[in-house]
Amino acid sequence: METGKRHDLAWFYCGAVLFAASFLLLFLARRAAGMAQWYAVYMYPVIVGTTGRIFGLFPMSVVEVLLYVTICLVPASMVRLLVRLILRKAGKAEAVHYFSGIWLTASVLFLLYTLNCGINYQRKSFSEQEGIVTEAYSVEELQRVCEILTQDVNTYAEQVERDGDGLMVLDGLERELAVEAMHSLGESYEGMAGFYPEPKALAGSWLLSVQNLSGIYAPFTVEANYNNDMTDYNIPFTACHELSHLRGFMQEEEANFIAYLACMESDVPEFRYSGSMLGWIHCTNALRREDIAAWKEVRGQLSEKVLADLQANSEFWSSYEGKVSEVSEQINDHYLKANGQSDGVKSYGRMVDLLAAYLKER
Description:
By secondary structure, the chain is an all-alpha fold. It contains 15 helices and 3 strands. The termini are far apart.
């Protein structure tokens, strides 16, 4: 057998083995009791401490750079191969070699996803691990939670830096401060302790904006990325949300709750404002669905400074509404359901239950 054919065959079998291994790990994570929890506690932190530390040395998002390279190279290489086949400068062997390479690359990426993300979906949730029990609560109790958050929002709104338009602005240190906030949270919750690389703003944040995404965790490079174009008050919360995935907590409602806790652990007013604002938005959205009159009463308690930030945020996201964002939401919905979050995108609202339980004593 020729050397080229042996290589192609080896790539095919190697890819098949990697795919099979990935499916087996995902199956065991769902079926073998305790396997995912053991992996998340003992193995995944090693990956974050090595892979996350290596890619964390780069100031830019490495996965973003790789995405752009892929977008440029893959179509170009396919066109080149097609032209060579048409002109008969390439034969079947070259086509087999090309697609065996694609197959092997896809299998490696699937394995990275499995190890750095997929298995963790089956671990114990943050609330289970920390003993936070959610209970049924009345609309009146939900309104009280919203009022508490309104008080917090109004308080921190007076402490943050603002630009000439009266909008909250960050000083550019949010990356370092997000890591500090997560470390502080780790002192209160053992499951959050560990190494955190700095979160990274995407250079092409419009890629997230058109999908109505504020941030994204990249399992292939273990990077926490956030949308740098959105209204500033979103950024601290989003950075902490994405960093929470580096502790193996993949469920979105859990990550939102962790982000709130991290922001409130920070001594920086902009972080506390961000955390209380996003908590307020989630809870008041739930209140509005249940009692529009109570929602109006709560919203009427907001200061003008808070209203200015909310208006700017609404205008920003409205400018990106369209088919792309709708398709993105549908894809995200199917993705969450495939990973055990049966309510899909609705699971983002479960943060309200966790916040209600957490703030009940206040």
